[in-house]
């Protein structure tokens, strides 16, 4: 099966898809170092830059597709910062949000059998339009439906369904797919045949339930790496060493002696939240916490279970399931960032296997009552019920292709104009 990859990064998702039998025809990536990583490891693969600089037809030509040749899959994880709960979210009003819309336009114009979108958990609650907090309150109008949580995802689903695709989505923990890391991501799967595909089939479970192996541990992923393998590594500031020396595998600042906790955290000690990332050592016998773009930031430390250092570049790669010989280009900080932003290969493989099974008319079915995430209302069924209020005031006679969403006349016209342009 042939596919086009967008926002390709260091190709983590792509490696998973390839392991499931998919063949990439093109990669699209704007980051300079990521592009070099792609070219180094996949020298035969065409690589383009900013998606906004290309039409769907130009992309098809660069990928070597003939006029009538069909694409099986378009896949991409548009920049997630616009939806991240960690920062000031602006959703589709953010420039990166507009890139998301460009991806939807390109994908639906190419009209592959499947469209896959991967993104952060924040997409589940992001509004379509962001109203600044200083313009909310009793003296301002109530939030409109497009300013309420969930508006961005609702728009995405409507867009895909207006183009004739059946849509399913869920929040998936990559540890359930063999990744030695707890990492939760939203995966939207759209099928051109109008059918809603089942959820991804897990290969592992936290406790070994459902006759599946238990989660893969950090130890199994990194213990065999040599000192030479781990040579490329950042360093913690010396002032933090005395605190890390007191902590064991899987521990963090709360395991320090009480008389040292305030000194260790400084002003952050009096801030709210659990602060679980401060002075955090990765556990040996559980999956790693979610990898971030740098392991040495005070609030998101990722220290080796035993040694007085952060995780190395090689350990980062192993915890994202990259092959040991995968070559990351750029400076050390860039390599951490590329790996930290990647989609684990195991999740990509699960996506590929599900799509292949649907194509062969033998859908894989996940175990009943399997718990994909620690959060509630993250699958498409529960999410739609919870966010039904987003559609109040819509004309019930104006429905999408699947008859699921009620759109206003303006909304429908806007989407149809984009799809037909």
TrEMBL record:
<keyword id="KW-0949">S-adenosyl-L-methionine</keyword>
<protein>
    <recommendedName>
        <fullName>Cytosine-specific methyltransferase</fullName>
        <ecNumber>2.1.1.37</ecNumber>
    </recommendedName>
</protein>
<dbReference type="GO" id="GO:0003677">
    <property type="term" value="F:DNA binding"/>
</dbReference>
<dbReference type="InterPro" id="IPR029063">
    <property type="entry name" value="SAM-dependent_MTases_sf"/>
</dbReference>
<keyword id="KW-0808">Transferase</keyword>
<keyword id="KW-0489">Methyltransferase</keyword>
<dbReference type="InterPro" id="IPR001525">
    <property type="entry name" value="C5_MeTfrase"/>
</dbReference>
<keyword id="KW-0614">Plasmid</keyword>
<dbReference type="GO" id="GO:0032259">
    <property type="term" value="P:methylation"/>
</dbReference>
<dbReference type="InterPro" id="IPR050390">
    <property type="entry name" value="C5-Methyltransferase"/>
</dbReference>
<comment type="similarity">
    <text>Belongs to the class I-like SAM-binding methyltransferase superfamily. C5-methyltransferase family.</text>
</comment>
<dbReference type="InterPro" id="IPR018117">
    <property type="entry name" value="C5_DNA_meth_AS"/>
</dbReference>
<dbReference type="Pfam" id="PF00145">
    <property type="entry name" value="DNA_methylase"/>
</dbReference>
<feature type="active site">
    <location>
        <position position="80"/>
    </location>
</feature>
<dbReference type="GO" id="GO:0003886">
    <property type="term" value="F:DNA (cytosine-5-)-methyltransferase activity"/>
</dbReference>
<keyword id="KW-0680">Restriction system</keyword>
<dbReference type="GO" id="GO:0044027">
    <property type="term" value="P:negative regulation of gene expression via chromosomal CpG island methylation"/>
</dbReference>
<dbReference type="GO" id="GO:0009307">
    <property type="term" value="P:DNA restriction-modification system"/>
</dbReference>
